[in-house]
Amino acid sequence: SADYNFQAIQDRWLPVWDQIKPFDSSVPGDDRPTKYVLDMFPYPSGDLHMGHAEAYALGDVIARYWVQRGYNVMHPIGWDAFGLPAENAAIKRGLDPRNWTYENIDQQKSSMRRYACSFDWDRVLQTCDPIYYRWNQWLFLEFYKRGLAYRKNSNVNWCPSCQTVLANEQVVQGLCERCDSQVTKKALTQWYFKVTDYADRLLDDLDTLEGKWPGKVLTMQRNWIGRSQGANVEFAIDGSERKLEVFTTRPDTLYGATFMVVAVDSDLAAELASGAQPETRMAFQDYLDKTKQSNDIERLATDRPKTGVFLDRFAINPLSGAKIPIWASDYVLADYGTGAIMAVPAHDERDMAFANAMQLPVIDVLDTGDPLPSESRVATTGDGTIINSGELNGLSKDQAILRAIEILEAKGLGRGSKNFRLRDWLISRQRYWGTPIPIIHCEACGEVPVPQEQLPVELPSSAGLDLSPKGSSPLGAAQDWVNVSCPSCGGAARRDSDTMDTFVDSSWYFLRYLSPNSTEFAFDPEQVKKWAPVDQYVGGVTHAILHLLYARFFTKVLHDMGMVDFEEPFTRLLNQGMVLMNGSAMSKSRGNLVRLSEQLDEHGVDAVRLTMAFAGPPEDDIDWADVSPSASSKFLARAWRVASDVSSSVGSDVTAGDQGVRKATHLFLQQFGEAIESFKFNVGVAKAMELTNSLRKAIDTGCGPADPAVREGAEELSKALSLFAPYAAEDMWSILGHEPAVALAQFRAVEKSLLVESSVVAIAQVDGKLRDRFEVPADISEDALRELALASDAVKRAIGDKELAQVIVRAPKLVNIATKG
Ligand code: ANZ
Ligand code: ZN
């Protein structure tokens, strides 16, 4: 017979699939149960790379598996097409971002087709299409109506190189996520989404995802939301009507507050400083200017030398009545809690560092058994018994926290409260390539929403606009576009010229796929009922915080708007690892870039995909230097030869076939299903290799190629391989006499009766010596095997009256018994 030739096979089947559309999920009358499998959509910033190849190979395993288990699987794809990467690249090359983006999309699309991704090509969306972003604008206005979109002036994260604001989430260790420049602060009026209104729900609902999302991602989300429970406490300011309110997680330590600290960049600090001595005012101003150059992470670092300015004022401790000095410092942040703290150096490291730097007193209020901080000048942070604290004395930390809150509430000087690390989501960007914000600014009427019927507010052509970053949106210069009459009073007005953060686009795209071309709805409620939420989401861990948090937020808002009846968008999440080369991320500058197109030319699509799946557990990184696509290719050739060696003249009664081969096939079906459903794709591939070997043996030296059991095995093998190597699988399926597509062929039901009989020989060892062997069912439990071994006469004799030290059971094959002495 002919040889396995991946190129010929690819050329043969791609056009056939284009015709059959095996993954069309909207065939009228299709009554299969539904599943929604979603891969994170790509940025169109070039052709597909190895990272895409991994992600889409793995997503495909899941999507194809469920189709072959009888589901109507919706597996759509689209492009996250707005945003900085496209815009920066377009500017660099002097192109229109629009053309550049659509060209890349076309290129990626044809690469995905060749890569045989099981996407439903009738559900494609591109976020830069007006038909899509119109609904961003619609949603924005819905949020606006509900007070969830608002504008405020504040100090925002500013990337001096991208010349645009960044959400907190886009600042990574003080650097711009996109370009690695040092991020600074700038006062600007910007649009926000009120994510903080949903902070509790965003946190609490993570519990419902336990065991379904990677634990690491849940932890990252929890930390990002960062809920702290504590109290707000009011301190009087000596000689002033003004109150100083602090947030503390430790109201139990109130008696130990020996000074107050207000954030140097807070309004309160400025106010207090303005009434101070001239020298203090100057020192304060000087210090404020310096602070503006550092970021929050630097400011909060415990090991940073403490600096500050005494503001010549004193506060009164509401419980002890003590008069304590008020300082301004950078280690307190203006936008967390109340922007001011009571400092308890005895039990807080940063406060102690400050007290040591400024020679301030320390009062111990918790006896933890460690040396007293007032003497050691080292803070103690453990639990213990409250001391030096009047009515709180003798209580434990937790008791004292509750008691202190009670006392404060009774006196009207404080209340229990909580704070979140989570901030509202800053969504406006001063860039061209994004969704225009559908608001018109009128001198007389203020902010006026663009009326529904005028949506979408389309992006004007970029011709004649200077797109280079300069701190204000390029759209402001599009005179014809920006100058409009006010929808409310008809007077001269201007469009808001900022565009939306692209994370807005990706916060609801998974719903848009349900009716991607609808001009009537953002998403069709009937389709939502049928498909949503997403059953399985697949994507990189780089999106563990931002994207997932925002999509969860949108889903909750849509839930409250009555548009969806679920509160979490992604029922299950799988994070795939990265593809590395020689231990590090691939990049042009490192010179370790592996080109996907070259790999595909050399080894073929199937071998590359199979290699991705076989490399290890999907969440682990793959080092391309450690894997072997040519070995994958050899295996595929082997599997393909098995199919081509099966005789066409075979009796159809498979039950009359060779029982050993049948067992191998059905055991394979069972184990393969378990492996795929638990995301052990590499195990699935290994099982397919085992089955291939069994079938080879059966053909060459066993029951021979005409046995119906061999045909059964070869058929199930081609179905299984369809998950990893769709071209080879289709060809095998065709050689076995079937019409395409193998991707639609259902796995045979596992015949349990074949498995029950299947037995293995287990051995029992005592102190390293073989003492007995017995036949056991292959699926015997550890407990059953242990009992069996301990009941064996030979084993009993070997143990004699010695005491057992350890019994190690490796079901189904081994029991290892160690005795004492
Ligand atoms: C007194 C105290 C005593 C505190 C003690 C801690 C230990 P999390 O868990 O992060 O919420 N804090 C409050 N607002 C702050 C701000 N704007 N900038 C910097 N620090 C601030 O931490 C809450 C604790 O961090 C608060 O409790 C406050 O210090 C400080 F033994 O109050 B604590
Ligand atoms: Zn007006």
Automatic annotation (TrEMBL):
Residue ranges of every copy of the Aminoacyl-tRNA synthetase class Ia domain listed in the record: 13-210, 423-623
GO cellular component: cytosol
Compartment(s): Cytoplasm
Domain Methionyl/Valyl/Leucyl/Isoleucyl-tRNA synthetase anticodon-binding: 659-782
PANTHER family: LEUCINE--TRNA LIGASE, MITOCHONDRIAL (PTHR43740:SF2), LEUCYL-TRNA SYNTHETASE (PTHR43740)
Family to which the UniProt record says this protein belongs: Belongs to the class-I aminoacyl-tRNA synthetase family.
Stated name of the protein: Leucine--tRNA ligase
Biological source species: Aquiluna borgnonia
Name of the gene this protein is made from: leuS
